[in-house]
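Fold these two proteins, one after the other.
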Amino acid sequence: MPASRAPGRAPRKGRLPDLERFLTYRLHVVNKLSDRDTQRAYLERLDLPLSEARSLAAIGRFEPLSVKDLARAANLDKGQASRSAQSLVERGLADKTTSDTDARGVWLTLTPPGAAMYDRVIRLIEARNREIFGCLSAAEQEQLGSLLDRVGRHLQGDATQDD
């Protein structure tokens, strides 16, 4: 919800539902707030922009990764994934090797300093999750996780996994 409103303007009311009651709107707001604070934490504590931290976490978890797979795993578009991967390579945190099967393709893996940074990124992700979801009990966190998994499966068209 906006913090301020133009003078003399009241919220639009009528036969339509209020925007801020839609779950998609609320998820977007929570995501933006979380990303803002997480971006700040990555920069302050690890000197990594959010996209690079997410890329490093994805490479560390699923290596070796192509740039296309990195984009999917880190929830970035291919251009962002490519730029993040290149930056990680330039920082000495990742290696890029040419694919044996496709001369245009590359595989991304972590270097030893990248693996050490991966450990720091995962610890920060864990801390951020405690900060963000600390207002929920363990049972509520488990339930929220299950519900998000279910919605994710639904959006991916995998209705067979729904409860």
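Now the second one:
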Amino acid sequence: MTQSALLTADPGEDVPDVAEILEQLRLAEARLARARQQNSGLTETDRAAMRYLLERVDALEVTPTMIAKALHLSPAAGTALIDRLVDRGLIFVEPHPRDRRKKLVQPFDRNIDPDHVDPLTSHLRSLAAQLPPAEARTVASFLKKVLGAVSGTTAATQRKKRAEAAR
């Protein structure tokens, strides 16, 4: 148990070591990402883009910009992602029929089950749906803080690398 957990816990209460569980989650996620990429050749971003596209393609006209925004990618990273998926033969890009400035993204196979591309997401959604509303709010609040910490660390690392490269 962490020092802070020991200081705030009631003497008879069993308090989970959330920091340790988070570390285990980070390690398990990293192992999973490596194994999934090795097995399928798709990165986590590729898989997320395919899931996004497959879940919306019949209801929406999906554009490269929509995919990039949904995955929080820069325009350049979004373009690289689309190019990678085109090169792998998973998607094709076609001109928008009414707006010459836009392009539409289509999967080559509309019958691919998004759960086949990314079964873990469905399972995690199911687990989240089982949370009572009060617990869901608490967990969501905590996970947003974790996401902010991870995103902030990632952004700081990227800034540092750019600064070093500029020297």
